[in-house]
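May I ask for an example protein's residues together with how it folds?

___
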Amino acid sequence: MSVFVPIGIAGAVIAIACALATVFALLRGAAGLAGGAIGVWIVGAMLSVSASFANLWTPVIVALVALAGALVIGGVGRPLVRAGAARRVADAPVTAVAQPTAAPSTPVAQPTAVARSVESAPRSAPARQNPAPRTEALPIAS
């Protein structure tokens, strides 16, 4: 049973790494990255459960606490990061907008008309205008 302990510890390390990735993903608002990190965390947590076969529950507890902490820190930290970003945008110096230059010396080509419009495209007939063949007239083999 002692072979399961290193597997469980490796799983806890994977779970901690994925929990850290989850924190940074949640702080940045990257839901896809957070979902992927949590998906890999599940694998690490399942590996850490293997240490419980040797009555060593520490890797499992560490993996669970890592994700719980990541979700709390990410959930609490996201509004703080957003507020800081809004403050940086508000404090940014206003730059002058470039004025348009003179008209180009060469004329701009106008788009040509499409050869066939959407309204003239062929359409399929609805089912009620094109009924299916009737089956009651067909002889049934017995």
